[in-house]
Amino acid sequence: MTSLPESIRRFGPSRRIRHVIYYIIGLVSLVVFYAVAYNYALARLEGVNQSIFASFEFVIQTMTTTGYGQDSDIWSHPLMFLFVASIQISGIAIGFFTLRLIIIPLFTSAQVNLDDRLSPKSDHVIICEYRRDSVILLDELKQLGIDYVLISSSREDAESLSNRGYAAIHGSPQSAATFERASIRTARAVITDAGNANVNTILTVRTLRSDIDVIALTDDSDMEGVLRTVGADTVLSPHAVLGHRLAEKAVASFSSELRDTIEIGGTTKLMELPVSESSELVGRKIRDTKVRERTGATIVGAWFDGELQLPPSPDAVVSPNTVLLVSGEEAALEELNEFTRPPRSFTEHERFVLLGLGEVGQAAKSVIQEAGGDVVGIDLEERDGVDVVGDGGSREALLEAGVETAGAIVVGVPDDSVALLTTAMAQSLSPEIEILVRVGDAETTQKAFTAGADYVLSVPRVSARMVAKELRGEDILAPASQIRLVRVPAAEFAGKTLANSRIYEQTGCRVIAIQDADGQTVDIDPQRRFTGDERLTIVGRDEAVQKFLKRFDVSPTDLAS
Fold first, then answer.
1. What are phi and psi of 529, to 5 degrees?
2. Where would a tag sit more exposed on the chain, N or C end, judged by fewer CB atoms within 10 A?
3. What angle do CA 482, 500, 484 make, to 5 degrees?
4. Residue 290: what are its φ and ψ, rounded to 5°?
């Protein structure tokens, strides 16, 4: 039989919680012992028989110093007086221990040892100095079921995260002792986002373990070689990925060429299609677009002002910043693309305005120039590639860059306030222009859509998705998307039809492709009964897919992309 302390250890609470649990168990055991012993002593020493509950009440009154007068006149034996005195003394001592162990840490700002809050760790990841909104990454890992410890050199930040329930400790990631406290011996990977201290951190990790996977994040893609040389296995540059993604979306708005598609079975593909201001779909309800009848493509989901509907409501109205999530054969998607993009096609030397020529801007510039577009760069500093020196929020700078006749503007500045101002200004100067925006705070996304942006990506979200993809290896539509796409075995649904499996109702995920035992893609028939040998491709938001995997206890298989 498993002992209670062993059961507590398996449950996995933090060290501090375990101490409190042990303390409470000990206190309850002591009270029960006192009650039984007092009841027995009264009967043997004083010849008084009373209910065990009355003895229990006496013990509680005595230990809490609230009184015991109703029994004092029946004591006469010396041992009884000594026993009662011991209960009184132990009650006072326990009161002080309770105050120090539980009450003071809960209701004062007394400094606590964050290590005591950690549950036992194994096969976890250690995150060092994450600078891109830690909560988004930690929530992403939680949704994927990946355990972690975050190391922060800022005690204030570490305590704030710990107080909110995240596994965070205070310490220097350049110290071997800090990694030992984070249980590096049993960890599966280390993620470092320590800026200039990345090299020091990686070298510290390698002195402790040569076999652990090290993932480094950097805002300077030129540092990749250096970081790999000192021991990083993977180097991620979120700003470069974000810049590429924004530029690809800008170019795709004027091109019939399909980009960022994922094969979900046979010739069926899935992709995102932003709806332009001048698209004939704008202003129509989803049911009135007749997309399937006209093109053969299926609208799986849609983003409306940054909010995903999966599937979209038939009465939802398509707006200029709507992004459709569609599936179908390539010919069908190409035909639908004609309805979503501007009436004019991409031509050589199409002008694109870039605001900010940092890592994001440079990455966007390379994509646009490769596609044959002309780039007009705006930046506060005069540097290579800058055509207009000035503030992006300045009307004069935008006019000098020719925003009125440009096809799109990519806003890649690190200041969200400037990004929002530029978005609103560009929209007022050229209502038809495509506006694609990078934001540093995920909460600014909705504000950017309201200001007039057509497509918005947040650095924290892109970074978290890139890290999650490296750790989990799951295929998603893009690191910048909040959509997750996984393929799972259908064994759990053997004997059921898609209609009565209630996948969407229970999890919010949608089945978009079915492959039979021979790997052939079959039609999605709600009344077709599963044999259990099929593989289902499902799509959903992060939390919906995680809910699906837990609810049906399945693991994703490989998905070609």
1. -85, 130
2. N
3. 10
4. 55, 40
Nearest alpha-carbon partner for 119 in 232, 199, 15, 234: 15
SS3 string, 21-47, reads: HHHHHHHHHHHHHHHHHHHHHHHHHHC
What does the alpha-carbon distance between residue 448 and residue 262 come to, in Å, rounded to a whole number?
28
C-alpha 72/C-alpha 55 separation (Å) is 13
Range from 106-115, 150-159, 256-265 that averages highest in pLDDT: 150-159
In this prediction, residue 1 carries a pLDDT of 41
Q: Nearest-CA neighbor of 239 among 518, 511, 480, 516?
A: 480
pLDDT at 168 over 90: yes
pLDDT digits (tens, 9 = 90+) for 328-381: 888 888 888 777 766 555 555 688 999 999 899 999 999 999 888 899 999 998
Rounded to whole angstroms, the Cα distance separating 60 from 41 reads 17
Reported pTM: 0.65
Segment 231-256 shows an average pLDDT of 85
* Res 191: pLDDT: 96
State yes or no: pLDDT of 479 exceeds 50: no
Rg (CA), the chain: 31
Written as six digits, the tokens of 377 are 């760069």
The sheet carrying 535-541 orders its strands as 483-489, 535-541, 510-515, 521-522
Buried b (16+ CB within 10 A) or exposed e, 54-80: ebbebbebbbeeeebeebeeebeeeeb
Indicate left, alpha or beta for 318 from its phi (over 0: left) and psi (-120 to 50: alpha): beta
Q: What pLDDT digit, counting tens, does each position of 426-440 carry?
A: 999 998 888 999 999
For 499-523, how does the pLDDT look when each residue is reduced to its tens digit (9 = 90+)?
Answer: 888 888 888 888 888 888 877 777 7
- Match 């040389």 to its residue by tokens: 229
319 CB-side CA count, 13 A = 14
Separation between Cα atoms, residue 428 and residue 41, nearest integer Å: 89
* CB distance 497 to 528 below 8 Å: yes
Q: What is the DSSP letter of 118?
A: P
Structure tokens at 525: 């028939």
Q: Are 162 and 135 in contact (CB under 8 A)?
A: no
